[in-house]
Each structure stands twice: as C-alpha cells, then as structure tokens.
Specification:
The complex is a heterodimer of chains A (446) and B (153).
Chain A (H helix, E strand, L loop, with lengths): L1 H11 L3 H10 L4 H10 L1 H8 L2 H5 L4 H16 L21 E3 L5 E3 H13 L20 H7 L4 H15 L3 E3 L8 E3 L13 E3 L6 E3 L12 H21 L3 E3 L6 E3 L6 E3 L6 E3 L34 H46 L5 H30 L3 H26 L7 H20 L1
Antiparallel strand pairs in A: 1-2, 3-4, 5-6, 7-8, 9-10
Helix pairs in contact in A: 1-2, 3-4, 11-12, 12-13, 12-14, 13-14
Chain B lengths: L3 H15 L5 E5 L6 E7 L10 E7 L10 E4 L29 H13 L9 H9 L1 H19 L1
Antiparallel strand pairs in B: 1-2, 2-3, 3-4
Helix pairs in contact in B: 3-4
The chains are: A mainly alpha (446), B alpha+beta (153).
InterPro entries (chain A): Ariadne, ARIH1-like_UBL, E3_UB_ligase_RBR, IBR_dom, Rcat_RBR_TRIAD1, TRIAD_supradom, Znf_RING, Znf_RING/FYVE/PHD
Keywords (chain A): Metal-binding, Repeat, Transferase, Ubl conjugation pathway, Zinc, Zinc-finger
Catalytic activity (chain A): [E2 ubiquitin-conjugating enzyme]-S-ubiquitinyl-L-cysteine + [acceptor protein]-L-lysine = [E2 ubiquitin-conjugating enzyme]-L-cysteine + [acceptor protein]-N(6)-ubiquitinyl-L-lysine
C-alpha cells in the first residue's frame, strides 16, 4: 500500500494523505487514476474531496508557516477565535484551533469529539468529511494525528481494511478471528476466472480468492452466488420438505440421521433404506446392477405433457428440490465429517495403544481418510449446484456418470471409516481413499 | 451534571431566546435538558399558514456530533413525514454536521413543509397527491392545519 501511495505522490505531486484517498476512490487502479487526473485534475480532486488539500500542495508548507507566524504576532492583541461546534462564548486561542485544508477550523476538544464519534461509525469513518456543513473535503490521518493521536491506530486500521476490501488483488482470510491478508500473485488484473484457491498459513482455512467462499469447484463464482440466492429464496419451501428428520419408509418412525453414510437402518423395524431417495437399500446394491440411481433427476417421472403454468412451475420446483435435497444432504454430511475429525484423532490414539508396535504413521491413514471424506462431500455438494445450471444434456449425462461414481465410492468410504476399530481394514480404507481422490479429480476436470 | 452536550444545549437555548428565528420556538422540558419541545408555525401565504405543529427533539450525549431524534407530535400530511411523525430529512441523517444547532434544525424543518422532496417519499399518498393533484393536496394540508388547532386544546 505504501509503495503504491509513494508512486502516486511522485507522479501527481500531491500530499500522501490526498494520494491515498485518490487511489481509494479509483479502487487502487493506478492507470485509471492517472488518466482521469491528467484529463481534469480539478474535477478529480473535487469529486474525491481532496481539492483544498492538493492546492496547498508544494507551496503549502510555506503558507502554513506564514499564517502561523502571523497568528503568533496577533496573539498579543488577544484575537480570540470562535468554534462553530461548541459555540463557546469565550472563544479560543488560535493555537487551540485545528483547521482543515479547506480553511474551516474548530477547537481541539470539538475535533476530538468529532473524530471519536466518526470512529464509532466503523469502516465508514475513512469517508468522513469536514465538520462544516456542506463541505466535502475529507478528513485524513493528518487531522486525526493532530486532534486525537490516541485514536490514530484505530483510524489507520480502518484505512488498511478499506484498502484490502477495495483493492482487487487482496482479500481478508475468512477464517473466524483470523487477520491474515491474501495477496494474489498474478499480475494480470483481477483473479483468474479458473478460481484461485488460497489456504491461510495461519489458521489453514481454505477459500476461493475471487469470492471468499469455501472452494467451490466445479461450479464457478457467479453460478454459486446464483445458487445461494436461489436457496435463500426457496428456503421456506425447501425447509418444509427438508425437516431434519424423515419418517422410516416402512414403519414411519421419525429418524434423525446422525451418521455420515446414506445407508440407513431403521432402529425400530430394521428396514434398510437410502436416506436420499428413501428407497429400499437392496435396490442400491452393486450386485443388483444399478448401484446408485438416486443422483439423477428424471423429468419423465412427472407428467411432461401438462403445459399449464402451474405444472411448469411445479416441475421447475421439483427440479430445484431434486438438486437442493442432494446439495443439502452432502452439506450436512460434510459438517458431520468435519466434526468427526476430532473423534478420529481419539480413535488413532486408541488404535495405537491397542498394539504397542504400531507407530503414529501406521494409524495416520484414518485421518487422511477422514480429511478426504470432508473434501469429497464438499465437491459432491457443489456438483449438484453445478448440475442444476448445466443445460447441455450430453454434458450433463457425462457429468452425472462421474458424479455417480464419486458418490458411490464416497459412500463406501464413509461406511468403511465408521466401522468399529476391530473391523477396520487398513488396506481397504487406503485403497478407497485413493479411488475417491481420483474420482474427485475426474469430476473437477470434466 | 455538565457535559459538553448539555453545555452546548444551554447555549442553543440562549441563542434561541436572544436571537429568535421567525416562525419557530422551542424549549427544553422542565426536568430534562436532553428532551425538547418545539412548535413550528405554518409559513404565511402557503397552505400551511396558521398551523401550529408540535415536535419533540431527543438529544444524546453525542450531540452535536450526532443529530437528535426529531418527531412531530401533531398529525401531519406531508410527502416526507411518516405517519408516526418521523421526518425524512437529509440533515437529520447523513448530511448532519456538528455546526447545526436547534434553530438551524427547526428552520430546516419549517422550510421542508412548503418545499417537500418528492424523491424520498415517507407518505406515499401525500407524495402522489403532491405530484398529481395539487388542489386535493392543498385541501388535505388545510385539513391538517385546522386539526392542529383542535389538538392544541
């Protein structure tokens, strides 16, 4: 930030405090600022509220010196100054007054109150204008430093925040309480459309550099925003259908899903079913041919011939709900897998203690498996948002094939890693991890 | 208790008495200098002529760095005044400056009466009539003026 301001100071011959504002108002696009500035410097200065500050530029120091010596000379004549904020009848000594470059001056006490109050408004304080009504000259760190030195650090924090937020190449780490700043290395303007993923060194939160959300491949930022907006709008309807419990398809007992896998067994009637489609689990088995048929939305299931508006709306809602249910299902499973990361560590310790010969690296596969599971759930979640917007039928069927593979192997990995320790087979888990890893890569590549 | 807000309000009061602006009056409530009652008289030669409109102004310790809450007690019919008496006026919101005092606030509100800002309607009916049917608008305003005398008693 400092380097950028330096350059503007040199090129435009304006004070540093004004340079920072000029850059901020032009979203730190230097070239754009220079162009606008050389076209019409006055207009740019006026618009950004730094006109007076810039016009006392080079000769400014001299002028200030002159007036202050004049002030000193006239003080003996006790010319008291009037502060328009407190309207104190006694007036003030000239050296008790602090003035803005625009010439409006106020007493030190009122200035302090003004700045204190401005900082209470939060991030907007960097846009605070001169206390004089109708004057649009901006208050900068120069005034804060003179009137309220103790509040300067807070003001500068807000300046930095505004820089990070308006400058297209930086982004705050979205990790809770984390204050790291990510800077894009690419020199070519904004972040690449491919969606750069950053990982914070401090709190190891991963995020998309472009939109700041959790990494969301294969869907792009724009479609993700659309999807999230849609989910918010439809949430009333969706919630109705997606209460956190579902009735057992056989005995109608309410069932809460508290494990990550979609293979459910009703605790009262022992019926085994798939949590996603509520169908009999035996129809999902690999040995019956069609392993996992519930990731495809079949528009033929509803009556396609009915062209009335109501029917169209219903079909569109069904289509959305189909994808949303699965998106939501994987989202919850991802949260669950994240939670179980902690338990996994406990299991690793237990496994190690069972056998004195085992070393940490021997049980590390458990953690790897769990981390991979979180990753798979995340990718699967976004594949459903992606597929919702995928118009091309050919592409969609190819995509859904890979999605189905990934889903199938993710489910079996989930099941494997939830087994009691004594049934756990290390080789099987490790193999499954590498299979789903490859599937992830394929889905993201396709 | 003397704080900068209270000191400033006392000065505002003195200025209001020594140099009263035309058509507005105001004074703090007996027990609380942070709470003021004011009256704005409808400007002559306008439909508002003769009206006496009561307001309350509520100040905080942040005054004059923060604007007071201002609300009409009298029922109003005006494009920028809500049904509950709240006023939509830029200098009471984002254009507030600490150099404003009570007489500046009251005179601004007074001039808002005959010079509404149709861009930010707070009362859609008043706004519509003001733009489309000025006769009917003026008639409704005069109703409000007469109403304000009844409220008085």
């Amino acid at each position: 930030m400092t380097a950028q301001i330096r350059e503007v100071v040199d090129v435009l011959k304006v004070p540093p405090s004004a340079a920072a504002i000029l850059m901020r108002e032009h979203k730190w696009a230097k070239e754009r600022l220079f162009q606008a500035f050389f076209d019409n410097p006055e207009k740019v200065q006026e618009k950004c509220g730094v006109k007076a500050r810039c016009s006392c530029g080079s000769g400014g120091d001299e002028k200030v010196a002159k007036t202050s010596s004049k002030n000193r000379a006239t003080r003996s004549a006790s010319k008291r100054k009037h502060c328009e904020i407190c309207m104190d009848d006694d007036g003030f000594d000239p050296d008790e007054m602090i003035s803005m470059p625009c010439g409006h001056e106020f007493c030190e006490t009122c200035w302090y109150g003004f700045i204190h109050n401005a900082l209470d408004k939060g991030p907007l304080c960097v846009r605070e204008t001169c206390p004089q009504a109708g004057c649009n000259e901006l208050v900068t760190e120069e005034e804060v430093a003179r009137a309220a030195p103790d509040l300067l650090p807070k003001f500068e924090t807000y300046q930095l925040r505004s820089f990070v937020e308006t400058y297209g190449m930086t982004r705050w780490c979205p990790g809770p309480g984390c204050e790291q700043v990510a800077v894009a290395r690419a020199s070519g303007g904004a972040f690449a459309d491919a969606g750069g993923v950053a990982r914070c060194e401090k709190c190891s939160t991963s995020f998309c550099l472009k939109c700041g959300e959790e990494p969301h491949a294969p869907i792009n930022c724009r479609e993700l925003a659309l999807w999230q907006e849609k989910c918010r709008n439809e949430s009333e309807t969706a919630n109705w259908i997606l209460a956190n419990t579902k009735p057992c398809p056989k005995c109608s007992s309410r069932i809460e899903k508290n494990q990550g896998c979609n293979h459910m067994t009703c605790s009262s009637c022992k019926f085994e079913f798939c949590w996603i489609c509520m169908g009999d689990w035996t129809q999902h088995g690999a040995d019956t041919g069609g392993y996992y048929k519930c990731n495809k939305y079949d528009p033929n299931a509803s009556n396609d011939n009915d062209q009335s508006d109501a029917a169209k709306a219903k079909r569109e809602l069904d289509r959305y709900l189909h994808y949303y249910k699965r998106f939501h299902g994987h989202s919850q499973a991802q949260e669950f897998a994240k939670k179980s990361l902690k338990e996994t560590e406990a299991r690793m310790v237990a496994l190690q203690e069972q056998n004195v010969d085992t070393v940490w690296t021997d049980v590390e596969f458990l953690k790897t498996a769990n981390e991979q599971l979180v990753e798979c759930r995340k990718v699967l979640k976004y594949t459903y948002a992606f597929a919702f917007y995928l118009q091309d039928a050919d592409k969609r069927s190819r995509f859904e094939f890979h999605q189905e593979m990934l889903e199938k192997f993710t489910e079996s990995l989930s099941e494997l890693s939830e087994k009691p320790l004594h049934e756990m087979n290390r080789t099987e888990v490790v193999n499954q991890v590498s299979i789903v890893f490859i599937d992830c890569v394929i889905v993201l590549g396709g | 208790m003397s704080t900068s807000a209270r000191r400033r309000l006392l000065r505002d009061f003195r200025r209001l008495q020594n140099d009263p602006p035309s058509g507005v009056t105001g004074a703090p409530m007996d027990t609380n200098i942070m709470l003021w009652q004011a009256v704005i008289f409808g400007p002559d030669d306008t439909p508002w002529e003769g009206g006496t409109f009561k307001l309350v102004l509520e100040f905080t310790e942040d005054y004059p760095n923060k604007a007071p809450q201002v609300r009409f007690l009298t029922k109003m019919f005006h494009p920028n005044i809500y049904n509950d008496g709240q006023i939509c006026l830029d200098i009471l919101q984002n254009q507030w400056s600490p150099i404003y005092d009570i007489s500046a606030i009251l005179t601004s509100i007074q001039s808002l009466l005959c010079d509404p800002n149709p861009a930010s309607p707070a009362n859609s009916e008043a706004s519509r009539l003001y733009n489309e049917n000025r006769r009917e608008y003026n008639r409704r305003v005069r109703e409000i003026v007469e109403q304000s005398w009844i409220d008085e008693s």
